[in-house]
Amino acid sequence: MAKVSVMRILMGFAAMVMLLEVVAAVDHTVGAPNGGWDLSTNLGTWASSQTFTVGDNLVFRFDSSHDVVEVTSANYDSCGLGSPISTTVSSPATIALTAAGSRYFVCGRGSHCNQGMKVQIDVVAASAPAPPQTPTPTVPSPPQTTTPPSPTPPTNDSPPPPPTGETINPPSSAITLKMTAGTILGFGFLVMMLLPL
Ligand SMILES: [Cu+2]
């Protein structure tokens, strides 16, 4: 019986890990949602609207009048097609972003690159647990014996005064991350409880 419980916990944990991986890797469909890998999409604007993180994928979807050529920075600037890093002619072309740094993609057909069908992808490192830092010395706060709080009438319906000098607006991405982690944990435990054994 104990063995079964351990199995259940392990499987639930595995489900959580898998979910985390699914959430962590993002597929960026180039130009989406309002455009694509074509001549009419402002690919620079699209790229700057995205955050490319190591582990994400680029997905180029295109018709047969285009292809995807990964080139060097120099060739990107000049639309040169010599010695390409890779060439993909069939859609979709999925490019794994495996390292931090810049990657350069152009269309190799006709003069499409010179017409603007090119995109630079700046990949940032995945947010990892912060490396161990030298502990900041905790400065003991001086005893606050100065002004006592202004006496507020003890009414029950007066809301507490807002805390001053404290920012309570963390970046929305942090909120999203926490919510996602919470959702994953909750879902993982749900899976753990529902696993047929
Ligand atoms: Cu093209």
Can you offer a commentary on this structure?
The chain has 197 residues and is an alpha/beta fold. The protein has a domain at 26-124: Cupredoxins -  blue copper proteins (Immunoglobulin-like), CATH 2.60.40.420. The protein has 4 helices and 8 strands; from the N terminus they run H-E-H-E-E-E-H-E-E-E-E-H. It has helices spanning 2-24, 43-48, 73-78, 172-194; strands at residues 27-29, 52-53, 57-60, 68-71, 86-88, 93-96, 101-106, 118-124. Strands 2-8-7-4-5 form a 5-stranded mixed beta sheet. Strands 1-3-6 form a 3-stranded mixed beta sheet, with no helix packed on it. The longest helix has 23 residues, at 2-24. The protein is globular and about 60 Å long. Residues 145-150, 152-156 and 158-191 have low confidence and may be disordered. It binds copper (II) ion (CU). Copper (II) ion (CU) binds next to loops.
CATH architecture of the domain at 26-124: Sandwich
Q: Write the CATH homologous superfamily of the domain at 26-124.
A: Cupredoxins -  blue copper proteins
| Largest sheet strand order | 2-8-7-4-5
Overall body shape: globular
CATH topology of the domain at 26-124: Immunoglobulin-like
Summing up helix and strand content along with how strands pair, one would put the structural category as: alpha/beta
The overall strand count is: 8
Strand content: 15-25%
H/I helix tally: 4
What is the gyration radius calculated from CA atoms?
26 Å
Question: How much helical structure, as a percent, in the residues?
Answer: 25-40%
What's the overall average pLDDT, rounded? Answer: 74
CATH class descriptor of the domain at 26-124: Mainly Beta
Outline the biggest β-sheet.
5 strands, mixed
The low-pLDDT segments are 145-150, 152-156, 158-191
